[in-house]
Amino acid sequence: MYLPDRLERVLASAAEGKGPNREECAYLLGLPPDSWEVGIMVGMADALARKRFGHNAILLAQIGVETAPCPGDCKFCAFGEGHTEFKRARLPLDEILRRATSLSESGDLYALFLMTMHETDMEFLLKTVESVRHALPAQTQIVVNIGDFDLHQAAEIRSAGVNGAYHVCRLREGVDTGLDPARRRQTMSVVREAGLDLYYCCEPIGPEHTPEELAEQLFLGIECGCFQHAAMRRVFVPGAPLAARGQITERRLAQIVAVVSLTTLSCRETRSIAVHEPNLLGLAAGANTVYAESGANPRDTEADTSGHRGLGMGACRKMLYEAGFRELLRGDGTAVPVSLEYVLRSGAR
Q1: CA 140, CA 206: separation in Å to the nearest integer?
Q2: Are strands 327-329 and 56-64 parallel, antiparallel or unpaired?
Q3: What DSSP designation does 292 have?
Q4: Handedness of CA 161, 199, 67, 153 (dihedral sign)
Q5: Residue 342: CA count within 13 A, CB half-sphere
Q6: Digit-coded pLDDT (tens) for 154-211
Q7: How far apart are alpha carbons 118 and 180 in whole angstroms?
Q8: What is each CA distance from 205 to 76, 79, 191, 242, in whole angstroms?
Q9: Which positions ≥6 away from 268 have C-beta within 8 Å?
Q10: Are 112 and 137 in contact (CB under 8 A)?
């Protein structure tokens, strides 16, 4: 059995550290998920990623600090104002600090994400960041997942203690959302210009998205020099307008993770690959990063995703251990060995 010539050329280049171009990326994304060609590609992406990241994994956590009917009105999101059942609510600062302390107390959390609605109250955000920064261990970074912002605001949040921002021009932005794609891309540039790490993702992936669409959206993050790239599937949210389109399988998601991992070989700024929501297939396809979640979640109809859709820290540690990673990288560059004893001691079952 021989590899198709085109696939062999792409994988040979990847072995030399050169990621596929747009056309090659679309080719890889168009292969049948259950084909032996994809099996070989996924295996190679995993092997190259483990060598690239030194068998280190990254554990992240996010606190969704508020809910509201959101004017972004994304057709896949639980908070879209045209279909949401959520009311405006916000976690008190002392509760945010309690959760931040709980998530970071073991000392192995690389970064804590603070997520707000698209319309961000900057005064509240800055106060929250400053308070959380004092509550976290020194080695744990802070990343914001907020709406669009300008360079002045980026400087403010950086001064308050923020290290990075999650920001994406998503698939069919402006069609499946009420947001301006150009404004989303502008904010991505602002993140980099302000000296913050850009956390990016190919998302939210549904069955209807073509290989060419995925490749184009994937490359936006690479062109911006993203610190983290990722793949996330759209999940079924009851009542959301896109729910009827269904969702892709974890096997298909693993294929896309592998392509993301291979494609970012040419992006020197990329230091991690995430799969969302966390799963073992993605962690065996080139991803080394997962997220624990608390509070509001755009893929969940519960006000607190903890114990519902969102995984806890113990479950994430166990998953990274089962995936065979040797160490958890912390935000200051140090690492914690991922042994069975450590995983059990830190709360996993």
Answers
A1: 33
A2: parallel
A3: E
A4: positive
A5: 19
A6: 999 999 999 999 999 999 999 999 999 999 999 999 999 999 999 999 999 999 999 9
A7: 12
A8: 10, 18, 24, 11
A9: none
A10: no
